[in-house]
Design brief:
Layout: E1 3-7, E2 10-12, E3 18-25, E4 33-39, E5 46-51, E6 57-59, E7 67-72, E8 77-82, E9 91-99, E10 104-107, E11 111-115
Parallel strand pairs: 2-11
Antiparallel strand pairs: 1-3, 3-8, 4-5, 4-9, 5-6, 7-8, 9-10, 9-11
């Protein structure tokens, strides 16, 4: 039974920081490319950041230089460190696991991030 459980969302002021965590279970973690996606009201779900098992990363242009994705394979956990947060970062953030060999995908339940003064 595969589960992805996000945590760490909340309300922060512009310029603040937040760290999201996603704990995975029921899968062989090393076989999955992990990612963070977000969806704001009225908008499509978009890729924020991804990291391969070997540590190769890619980021959306809008978050480059502000966000950092990392993974701890021993803990089956992926993280998203978010700095210099802006109101436009407000969204529900979803954890994704992608087994690229056959394109099997799993999704977490999402965690709300609100950036507002």
């Amino acid at each position: 039974q595969v589960q992805l459980v996000e945590s760490g969302g909340g309300l922060v002021q512009p310029g603040g920081s937040l760290r999201l965590s996603c704990a995975a279970s029921g899968l062989i973690f090393r076989n999955y490319r992990m990612g963070w996606y977000r969806q704001a009201p009225g908008k499509q779900r978009e890729l924020v950041a991804r990291i391969t098992s070997g540590g190769i990363t890619n980021y959306a242009f809008s978050v480059k230089g502000r966000f950092t994705i990392s993974r701890d394979n021993a803990k089956n956990t992926v993280y998203l460190q978010m700095n210099s947060l802006k109101p436009e970062d407000t969204a529900v953030y979803y954890c994704n696991a992608d087994r690229t060999i056959d394109n099997i995908n799993y999704w977490g339940q999402g965690t709300q991030v609100t950036v507002s003064s």
